Amino acid sequence: MTVPCRALLVAFVVLVGLLGATTAEAQTGAPPWAACGRTDPERKPAKTYPVLPPVGGPTRTFAVLQCGNDRFGYRHIAGKHGQEWADLAVLTGGPWQSLADFAITQTLTVPQPGYPQFAPDRNTWTYKSPLQIKDQEGQVRATYWVVVGVAAQDGKVLTGFYTRDPR
Fold first, then answer.
1. Which of 5, 104, 107, 123 is the most core-located residue (most Cβ within 10 A)?
2. pTM of the model
3. Residues sharing a CB contact under 8 Å with residue 115, sequence separation 6 or more, in sequence order
4. Averaged pLDDT for residues 21-32
5. Other CB atoms within 10 Å distance of the CB of residue 30
């Protein structure tokens, strides 16, 4: 039986040591997202991500991370999940923003089979994919599942976090 390339890609979302982008960002100091200052509006775009359109859902091929507030967007991710990402980023040697950006990108473009899933009560699409952290010898040190929520009506990124629960 032939395994689709997409399934193979999902199974091997991997970080080994420093990410290439992380190294460049460390040298330039440029973050993966546009700045969201205190006075920047909630709707200011911080980054546009490509997405795999949901089967039976909108044909939108992108999702927008906006500056947001404590309930959605960059400010939500930074405020509610930033320390969690920072704790995990210690294993990669880079800043949490680079790890979160990498994980969100991979999750939105190559979600695990069965995703994205629609939650009609919240009118959101949930994307999920595995993230493996490997050491320099290529041994898996830990596996996490990245979860990204996207608003169905306008494609804005609501949240991005990881869990140890594969379900």
1. 107
2. 0.81
3. 126, 127, 128, 129
4. 44
5. 10
